Amino acid sequence: MFASSALLAFVLVGVSAASPLAATTFRVHELRPAVPSGFTAVGPAPPQTTLSLRLALAQGDPDGLIDALYRVSDPDSETYGQYLSKEEVESFVAPKSDTVTTVNSWLTENNLTATSLSSAGDWLSVDVPVAKANELFNTNFTLFKHIATGGETVRTLEYSLPGSLQGHVDLVHPTISFPVPVAQSAAALSKRGQAAAPSSPKLAPRDVASACSNGTIPACVQALYNIPLTPAVNKDLQLGVTGFFGNNAHYAWLETFLETYRPDMDPATNFSVVGIDGGSNDQDVPSVSEGELDIQYTVGLATDVNVTYYFIGFDNQDGDLDGFLDEANVLLGLDTPPQVLTTSYGFSESELPFSLVDKVCQAYAQLGARGTTVLYAAGDSGPDCAPDGSDKFEARFPSDCPFVTSVGGTQSFSPEEAWTGSSGGFSNYYARPAYQDTAVSAYLASAGPANAARWNTSGRAFPDIAAKADDIVVFETVFARLQGTSASSPIVASIVALLNDRLASAGRPPMGFLNPWLYKEGWQAFTDVTTGGSEVQCPGDVPVHQINATEGWDPVTGFGTPQFDKLLALLNL
Ligand SMILES: *[C@@H]1O[C@H](CO)[C@@H](O)[C@H](O)[C@H]1NC(C)=O
Ligand SMILES: *[C@@H]1O[C@H](CO)[C@@H](O)[C@H](O)[C@H]1NC(C)=O
Ligand SMILES: *[C@@H]1O[C@H](CO)[C@@H](O)[C@H](O)[C@H]1NC(C)=O
Ligand SMILES: *[C@@H]1O[C@H](CO)[C@@H](O)[C@H](O)[C@H]1NC(C)=O
Ligand SMILES: *[C@@H]1O[C@H](CO)[C@@H](O)[C@H](O)[C@H]1NC(C)=O
Ligand SMILES: *[C@@H]1O[C@H](CO)[C@@H](O)[C@H](O)[C@H]1NC(C)=O
Ligand SMILES: *[C@@H]1O[C@H](CO)[C@@H](O)[C@H](O)[C@H]1NC(C)=O
């Protein structure tokens, strides 16, 4: 659909075949023991309904890709910063030729036409009626209803692969993943009243108390983190911002925001839009804040950096991971993907099957290997509660992915403290990556037993770092004050983009995947947040449960908040 390549040879017009099913040995490939809570089965899916099924083909050398990622991201590696080209990444993730041959034969036997969804050829799409899909994967696609919203979706509780595809197809989607209604998948943003229309500050005061006296505005963030107003000069560098349908960013409101808070900038400073899955940044859609926030705190902080809004539309969207996957595949298909990508959306980890989550996480490893810093808002639900109603905490995707940098939230200033809503914790899906061992072991040794039974502390811990999340002033017909890690991630993305500009001027490669550098040495350029904590009240919690920020890394603010001047010094810039 998006990228074409030699593997478009997958598009086949089949020959008629004798029923291939007679001789087929099926083996159950994925299953869910029960209908997930919140959903109810309505009945068999109508046999003629067309399903757009995605097939993830086994990649040639996925472990090799991860090794290659660390070789370019670990500051002690001889090839640190020597990022891979598109072709080099694809040489690891493209399916092997016997996989291609086998899958092609299966398509032909079944008279199917497939489309390649990724430049590497590891994702295919086939449109088939439910009746045929049931035969192909020995399953019964069923109509399920989401009880709270009434939304209907076709899924199954188990499916099988024919013998010939076993070992060649990693998963078929959508099958056992149950989509979460989209409104809940955005990192929740809550509004705290309306800010008075500010009078234009002439130049950013460098003193935090006065810069932050009217709320978190660009001058406040610049003063807190010593971000310079100096424009970026390397026009070929890009900062990507992810947006999902409904979260349109309004050009006129950005202009008002810049006139008000960046009088030193050209108020016509703009951003580009790349639509994915039919997305278009229509201006007649009312604001739901997220898009305005993400654009105003990138264009408005990363002075003169090329900001591109990757805007995902409604096609193929039912609240599942498809938009995340499609965006990653679009970026991986580019010769030069954006050097920084910030996304303020996510899911509760256990809402999605690991098989699918891991495919998206692995795509972020590919982007890291290409030199992209992939940043995610940690989430706004504190340590969060397990959806099964137990007293366990719950991690969030994609912050649980070891190949992204997760950004938690702070509040207040002088000093900043942990924001009460900041998500953080430990993954049940991913073990702790080696780069986190020292920092996280130190936290666990000092944290005491208060939460020990509620966390799986062997998992990937998040967030990695933090930035302001409270009192964020955004223009959306009025000046509103918002809160959420949805602000923290764009703020950090702006800082990384400005660092990349300085690096490029010095003839050096961009920051890329931050974590191996961050946990080894980068943390020294961050201000440790040691007070405040996140809060949650899960069923059975009396009273509200608090996770405190501590000295050193903690699962609320990570290593703390960035200092641009210290980052420059650490990077010898
Ligand atoms: C194969 O597909 C073509 C095009 O959709 C259709 O005309 C033909 O009848 C199909 N053949 C069989 C055996 O299903
Ligand atoms: C699908 O449903 C039919 C009718 O209820 C049943 O006979 C069949 O075993 C089911 N197939 C699978 C794979 O569950
Ligand atoms: C804060 O608001 C006051 C009153 O509107 C104004 O005089 C001052 O310049 C503002 N300060 C900043 C940093 O925006
Ligand atoms: C920014 O770009 C959009 C889309 O091209 C355009 O409609 C808008 O007028 C531009 N804004 C400014 C301030 O130039
Ligand atoms: C910014 O980057 C996008 C994507 O590469 C490109 O289409 C656009 O022209 C660039 N904008 C500017 C002002 O250079
Ligand atoms: C705890 O995390 C590990 C990964 O570190 C995982 O293998 C294990 O299944 C998790 N335990 C539970 C109960 O989810
Ligand atoms: C967190 O800090 C508060 C205030 O200092 C304290 O009362 C509480 O016991 C701490 N909670 C934990 C789990 O350490």
Q: What would CATH call the architecture of the largest domain? A: 3-Layer(aba) Sandwich
Indicate the low-confidence ranges by residue numbers: 1-22, 182-188
Instruction: Give average pLDDT, whole number.
Output: 91
Number of H/I helices:
15
Pfam families: Peptidase_S8 (PF00082), Pro-kuma_activ (PF09286)
GO molecular function: metal ion binding; serine-type endopeptidase activity; tripeptidyl-peptidase activity
Function: Secreted tripeptidyl-peptidase which degrades proteins at acidic pHs and is involved in virulence.
GO biological process, one term: proteolysis
Write up what this structure looks like:
The protein is of the alpha+beta class and about 575 residues long. It folds into two domains: about 10-60 and about 95-175, no CATH class; about 185-570, Peptidase S8/S53 domain (Rossmann fold, 3-Layer(aba) Sandwich). It is built from 15 helices and 28 strands. The strands form nine sheets. Strands 11, 12, 13, 14, 16, 18, 19 and 22 form an eight-stranded mixed beta sheet that branches. Strands 4-5-3-9 form a four-stranded antiparallel beta sheet, with helices on both faces. Helix 8 crosses helix 9 and helix 10 (about 320-330) packs parallel to helix 11. The longest helix has 21 residues, at about 485-505. The protein is globular, with a radius of gyration of 24 Å. The two termini are about 40 Å apart. The model is unreliable at about 1-20 and about 180-190 (pLDDT under 50). Bound molecules: 2-acetamido-2-deoxy-beta-D-glucopyranose (NAG) (7 copies). Secreted tripeptidyl-peptidase which degrades proteins at acidic pHs and is involved in virulence. Its EC number is 3.4.14.10.
